[in-house]
Structures
1.
Amino acid sequence: EPEVTQTPSHQVTQMGQEVILRCVPISNHLYFYWYRQILGQKVEFLVSFYNNEISEKSEIFDDQFSVERPDGSNFTLKIRSTKLEDSAMYFCASGLTGGTYEQYFGPGTRLTVT
Amino acid sequence: AQSVAQPEDQVNVAEGNPLTVKCTYSVSGNPYLFWYVQYPNRGLQFLLKYITGDNLVKGSYGFEAEFNKSQTSFHLKKPSALVSDSALYFCAVRDGGYSTLTFGKGTMLLVSP
């Protein structure tokens, strides 16, 4: 069964450093998403991406964040200058369509900012 | 703005007994409702969804959920719980016009042998 994969599984970085989180969505899916889950809190939407552009983003997704689909298979989330409060589990998801179709999630990348 | 409430942090049930995990929602348009399950160190796995039609929807692993428009609820149910059902369960809603999923805070289900 096809699945969403994410690398790395755990990333430790120092405050102010740039990080790139990588995802490989399910191959025939057209919609891509990033979510985050701060420890003990709910899963929060960050951004959705379709047709090579951002379709929706939340208030969390400020200028420090960017997304890219560089090569037709990978989908990346970049945090330019990490802060302590960026420490969280980051989930990538993909969906065949953006409407009624369910989203399939990857296993997540745990980001720890020290 | 859309929102989801899962009023129980934890639900405890004995194996073989029926289980219910509660979820209520708020959206301005037509609700698209989803249940996901998260096992330790794993991503969220899709269980089932309600888009339209029959209010009782069936999903993976014997789970089902009942959509109740008047009570704005979408409770997850299973007739006979298994120890392997123990996990964190998330209810999510999407306002029909948008792709953003809004999640509840999750409910830990513990099934004892």
2.
Amino acid sequence: DAKTTQPPSMDCAEGRAANLPCNHSTISGNEYVYWYRQIHSQGPQYIIHGLKNNETNEMASLIITEDRKSSTLILPHATLRDTAVYYCIVREWMDSSYKLIFGSGTRLLVRP
Amino acid sequence: GAVVSQHPSWVICKSGTSVKIECRSLDFQATTMFWYRQFPKQSLMLMATSNEGSKATYEQGVEKDKFLINHASLTLSTLTVTSAHPEDSSFYICSARYSWYGDEQFFGPGTRLTVL
């Protein structure tokens, strides 16, 4: 089972920041947090990942709390094309391999 | 970023036939590839993990004799759905990772399988 919980849906206005929360209270010390998004009928797109420090790239910022039990993905200026399902995933070591186990994700709707 | 392709993008077949789906990493060598399945309005479910040159490891509840996975090279993995039935109709997505301990995993565009 996935180690993360996310709100099922959120919305925000175009041009505003979208802040997507994620809880991962059972995360282990060496497990990374990954964020992907999936636009309808496409494969998931990698956004960002982190261990314990905040991370930023051209797409988004990832804020991880000090106790690592939760994180927030920030899309600084959301556009209509950011409408998608966003998955927060804790990468797990299982059966001698790292695996991404998807939870149910957050459906983000960006309003004009 | 790294590119993963899948072929075909969609396929329709008759019940009882077998269907092969290819997954290729186009600009990197993938030592590990993953196959996921996604039913409508549901999340992705991991089916199996395959390392190049080794047998695939299947997740609990996934029939290895029905979903044959071959990872013959560092850039190609195939999933064969044998004796397909309508309940196998789904969106199949592959994913590939750079290296044994790589941090990034990239996904293909998916293959829509419809079994009549």
